[in-house]
Amino acid sequence: MSQARPLAFTAAGLSKSFDTVTAVDEVSFVVPAGKVAVLVGPPGAGKTTVLRLLLGQLTPTSGTASIGGPGSGAQRGRQVLGAVQTPRGLHPARTVREQLSVFAAAAGVSADRVDELLTLTRLDALADERTGTLPAGARTRTALAIALLGNPPLLLLDDPFDGLDQAETAWLVEYLHAHSRRGGTVLLTSRSLSAALPVADELIVLDRGKITYQGSPSRLRRNHPDRLLVRASSPIALATTLAAQGFTDAVMRPDGRLAVAEASLAQLESAASRARVQLTEITPEHIHPDQVLAALTQTTPAPSRYPAPNMYGMPR
After folding, report:
1. Integer Cα distance of 3 and 19 in angstroms
2. Residue 1 clears pLDDT 50, i.e. is over it
3. Per residue in 56-69, pLDDT tens?
4. For 219-239, what is the mean pLDDT?
5. Residue 73 pLDDT more than 50?
6. The pTM is what?
7. What is the three-state SS of the chain?
8. What angle do CA 10, 308, 245 make, to 5 degrees?
9. Could you give the percent of the chain with pLDDT greater than 90?
10. Which percentage of the chain shows pLDDT scores above 70?
């Protein structure tokens, strides 16, 4: 039997109220070491508040929030936790290099590490630019470089995709995957489910402070699959034949079309032939991840700048 992974981040019955507003309401989750977990939800869902509770910047109204796992104790002076927060906390008059150098000196990190991180985060060409003049994506990468100065095993990242273009987003996704493969652990927040899916081992969806989904991307996909919308001479006969072949997720829409999940076009046509049913229209219905997020959070989906990952970023 494999040994259970130590827990890196834990919330148990976590709640936080500000006067009459409850920002976080009975939130519980664990993030095992070596995993990437994403807190997903619209603005105001409570994501940043959860991170601040974990960092000890806020005191819970009730429940507990803790950071532990490998590296939670002293590690020969090694930084244990790196955090990217909102706002980014950058001095607008300092250059990118100066900003990193100030934090490096405080952490006892060499100038070579500053140069290494400027290259890693693709900031070397902007090293002498003042942070106050940088676009949002470059400010996010500067904050990330600061968080990585001490090579910490644990990362808490608030909206790390903010302002990043597609190439920068792809780089960050690969970096976080590599970090977890090395045994590191990440808890990050995202306003977009389509941005979260390519990086997440575990999803924690928040809406108005409450968890509305918790689990793997693949399980979420099974709950919200793409479908084929079918007009048929006898949709009931077709649904019955499909069910006999193991395709039990077929739903009759108000317009009379049968919405079939999991079956391929060839399997659908084979079932129609067996049922002696004529198919008059077949239309694929692809569910964008941010439509799923809107359904989970009861919000209107904003146009996403992230392309929908194939198969929710996961195989079926």
Report:
1. 44
2. no
3. 999 999 999 999 84
4. 94
5. no
6. 0.84
7. CCCCCCEEEEEEEEEEEECCEEEEEEEEEEEECCCEEEEECCCCCCHHHHHHHHCCCCCCCEEEEEECCCCCCCCCCCCCEEEECCCCCCCCCCEHHHHHHHHHHHHCCCHHHHHHHHHHCCCHHHCCCEHHHCCHHHHHHHHHHHHCCCCCCEEEECCCCCCCCHHHHHHHHHHHHHHHHCCCEEEEEECCHHHHCCCCCEEEEEECCEEEEEECHHHHHHHCCCEEEEEECCHHHHHHHHHHCCCCCEEECCCCCEEEECCCHHHHHHHHHHHCCCEEEEEEECCCHHHHHHHHHCCCCCCCCCCCCHHHHCCC
8. 90
9. 86
10. 90
Closest CA to 55 of 217, 219, 187, 193: 187
In this prediction, residue 268 has a pLDDT band, given cuts at 50, 70 and 90, of very high
